[in-house]
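Q: What would this chain look like folded?
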Amino acid sequence: MKDFYLALGLLVTLLLTSLSGTAQSITLQAEQPYYFSTSFQVDDIEPSWTDRILSAVRMDDQIAGDQWVYPQLIERSEQVYVQVRATDVADNGVERRVTLGQPQQVVVRGIWDGFFGVTYSWTLAPQPEAAATEWTDIGYHFVWGQPTLSYLYRNTVDDPNVTGTLGAVEVTLDYAEIAPAVPQAAPNQAPVLAQIGELTATEGEVTIIILRATDDAAEDELTFSASAELPAFATLTDNGDRTASLRIASGAGDAGAYAGILVTVSDGELSSSETLTLSVAAPVVVGCVPISILPCEEISLPLPVKFSFNGDENGIYDRNGQGIGFTMVDAPSNNLFPATPANHNVPGMQPELLTVVGGKLVVHSTKGIHYQKPPASSENNSQVNALGVRHRGTRYVLCSFG
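A: My prediction, written as structure tokens:
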């Protein structure tokens, strides 16, 4: 039987009754807390269920306008959470997960400072003594004069999309009147993923970043995961000790921004996450520009030149970061195909068009013009990957396509 009653909105369906069913109100005294307790249980929710307010208490002072404090249930990813809000007080974002099928008690504490403010805090795990209870701050209401608690609201609106019960709704100056007889276990809270921030890496280099998470429950086993937006050259490994290793091993041609990477840590029930962008930069070349990424003293080879194309040779690299043996490329006088070189310092080198495989070097050529001396026009000598070596100060272009 659906017997859970929740209002559509506090200011829409206010059915007010005075405190304790009488005309009595409570006048707050300086530094004396009052406690506003609501007992409830949620058994199940329908997919169409939305946020609902449980109860509310109104505070009056000499300033016109209603000042309410109220617990409400909210839905997040098919889970139910409780949050306490106050009129005109900014949302602090704190939510506590509700365990379905179990009795719950949310208690709000308000304290007037004797001057101009009433501060609020709340808990979903009240203890037998107020001092032993962990309170979460909400904020404060500005007041003028001595405030009073005038009205108590208990929800009486039927909602067929949720099953449960709404129990006692009470306001008192004596915490013992609403305190549980035995200590209450704190509800499970989501693990906290330590902020990761901006991710940066460089082509051809391996970067390892350690991710960390914490959880108040020492017995919770945390697991890390990453969304499909994580590029193939990056891997996330759960270390099993509340840390994970993000290994980034980008290769030639991987420079760019990879957005929308969602990294999540979960305790099996609750989770927290961060959406990241990985920025991969082209390597900063300090080589023998503009013909090689290698230092000038390393591009000279003795003749005759012979390469095995097994990927273990030095020289410039292919699309997979494997050395191809050739140590230089002749720099084109004009970059046309492609118009933007992979490496601005060595504009004739296009690693994504080179592949070492099976003892062969495969070169995919783009449009280009054979080198002419002197160039016939500014569009001549536009060939990329004109591979070669240097011998005793002389350049030898050994592989050119036109």
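DSSP finds no helices and 26 strands in the chain.
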